[in-house]
Structures
1.
Amino acid sequence: MHRFYMSLMTKRLSLGLLLTLLLASLVFPGCEGGGGKAGKAFTRAGERGINRLLRKGRREVRRSIRQLTKRDQVPLEEKETLTAYRIMATEPSWLVRERRYESYYFNLLTDLIVGDYDLNPETGQARNQKAARAIVNYELVDSAMLARAANPDLRLLVLVTCYGDYGPRGNQSPAQLYRGFLEDEGLQRVLADSLRALLSHPRLMGNGVVLDFQQVPEGMEEPYFVMVRNLRKWLGDKLIYLKLPPLTAAGTHVYQPGLIQRLVGTELVDTYIVTGYDLQRPDTLSGPAPIESPGPHDIARTVAYYREAGIPDQQLVVEFPGHGLVWESRPGRRFALRPTQNHLPVRSIPRGKRTYAPDSSYVLVAGSEGDQWYTFDDQRTLRPKYQWVKAQGLGGISLMGPGYRHANEEQWQGLAGSFGANPPKLVYPAIALLLMCLGGGIVYSVIRYWQVRNEIARKRSHQWFYGLSLFMISLVFIACMVVTIPTEVTAGSGFILIMFPFLRRWRSMARRWGIG
């Protein structure tokens, strides 16, 4: 079972058991001690039995409560995501097979994108149908399903890719096959049926799809729009996210302002993921994801382009890579991007002395032979980029391949530092639970023991004592629960508290009519 889930459930179960025993020792002796001989006898027996269980556990309870009520010492598995932002992670199929997900903290994510469903434009089905069907058997999916117990807001989506690299087939080039799919609603219906069957699988229970269509042939704006509209209709209530290319000379293609405005105006897409990498110049040393650069392309210009096209800020999510770039030295202290295999996972970059760019926009590491250099992002360079996303009021961030990085907590610590929130303190629900037990103990002692009822009936002051005690307990209980439970429940409790003073009048009327 996933390490995060096991750690979380073990802590909660052990702490819950210890708190229950402690509350029992505090409540029952105090609630029933005023109820005559039977109440006192119960108190003595209860104290002896419960104290045996708690003699060695009270110190651990106090330590656990102190740890969970200190907001600056919350462990990563207890962190929550700020509700104003979307935190996504895309895990391609080859990383899933490497089991990199075992070190993930799913509680820090709002969306997990798994894949990939690589489209065959000739049939509308997956190019590798066996790999597509295997998505539901991923242990990553099992871990995500378990994590939903602790993070019910976690959404699971399937990545659908089409990069224009399929073909040629016969006399048809890859571009012609691409065009044929975009113009054939029958093939699009096959895709929708396959995705709907995949998303509804009991092992997956997916929430939607992410469309990553690259190298769309020029002049296909209208067929592309019709395809998205058809998928929206055939997938029903499933979410549709659209991955947008970076703003480069060859990157925008069909994603012109006119098409973006139509997609936004018809509300066909729920979220737009902007690719925030592959923005470097091949002849200038730089990082893979610059916010601002002296060149013509960077994240700021890309986001501004899609903003001006009409995408609302809250629907824009910037994706950061888990890979770095490989550079080669050139005469005259110049660098050039290696012609082939110039992308390398961060975990595969040789370890060495890290040199940060003057503006801290990337990390530079020299290769062992001195003729190659590597640039990438670590948490020191990503932190200001995360803050830039927040300052711009955007919807959040996406991590492309968290498994590309080393299996440590560094990237998750950085993510939690920028977008994580501490869970609410347990002091208020603990007080509310204690008060609920105290109030229940008072009512139980009145119902269970005739000595208590006789004492209340004999002295009017005792009636006021019990009544005011229940009133004050209810008042403080509601005050504590206001910060921990939904408004509807709080309103219901408030109504009961308001009606409490009328109980005495109703009791008198009942006696007058011979009832009770």
Note: Residues 3-73+425-485 form one domain.
2.
Amino acid sequence: MNEQEFKGEFKNKLLNHLLNKYERSKAFIIGEETKQRPQLLLIEEPFKADFEDEMNFRKREWMHQVIEVCLAEGIVDVRRERSSHVIQKVYLKWEKIEFVYKQVGRQPKRDKLAELRSILGELNDHPWDWLAKWAQGTVMVLGGQRSGGMDLNDLKSYVDAVRVLKELPSISGDIPKRMLSMRVFGNSKYFERYVERRLLSIIKQGMGEASELGEGELDLIGIVPHPKPVLLGGCGQFTLNGKPLSLELFPDGMALYPETLKVFQWVELNAERIVMIENLSTYHQWFRVRQPVSELVIYTGGFPHRILQSFLRRLWDELQITNASFSVFHWGDIDLGGLQIYRFLQRDCPFDIRPLFMDEGTLTQFGEAGGEHLERYCQKANDLLQNDSYANWHILLETMAKTGLRLEQEAVPDELVQKVFNSSK
């Protein structure tokens, strides 16, 4: 690198570093000058290596020359070593901050925060309550000149994500992501390339904790890789296009796709209880070992997709009309994701849901520790202990945090599944 290139790069790095210092300061947050100006030491990162490079002493000379130019321009002040003219510390002048932003071609953080407030403010009155509350809270944080974990260097992705979130309530049921992409952006792959990751981050923050479930979280807002059915079986009479049928005709359960659900109508629910199951293999296990099945069994598939959410609300309405009362259970994995799914069902579904095979005894008997990121897993379990929303899970979470145990549903043996509820008969 020649002298001119080095000086140009150093000046840009120097001024940007001073702006970084300013944007992280109390002065930036309160919008007023403080006693302590944005400042840096040349013997610290990211300048230390060049400033102390004994193999090329010219670098220090060039750095001094650049700072002297900035000093002459009135951009900075400096403090020199007492015994020499060596520059020790560089200060950014308050009155030159806006000028420096323009000189380095950088959008001020204050402008980015204001722009993002405007973008997310469009969600303040969103019909989904959890999203509106998240947007309102985030806008308030941004108004306090704090980023709140938002990526201020990619505002376009927030614009696109807001477009999607505003469009979704107008869509009945689920929509494949490529059809959604074509509908909103006129390009079938745009959503996956530029929007999906940002939208997932918003969902995770809106849900209240960082989930482990990845793309599964898109299901709950109605964005799916392909149309998804409602899987159910057990006991219950219904009609399809007015023709009477019974779930008992389908020993392995049945799949109802969106168009079929439009002509589905409950007639009588003669089950002993309702059981929702997270994993597909254990959903089928239930039918395999409990014939004849006396429950209404529903597969949730992780977070319930919007078609399933709508189906559960219709089921609830039917029970209210007939004044029927059922115990409702959910059987999921005993891990961070499983507890988050249970909490979502408990919070967003109308039923009073109780856990099934999701207790400390089952975890210690059949669970396994280890796997990747064990320390991170234990820490997250410990974090949930501080969350009041998980107060009913404290005993289980304490065990998970101390031991690292987790339990996949498939580890629960057939015998236990076969005998459950026997004592209540």
Note: Residues 3-23 form the longest helix (21 residues).
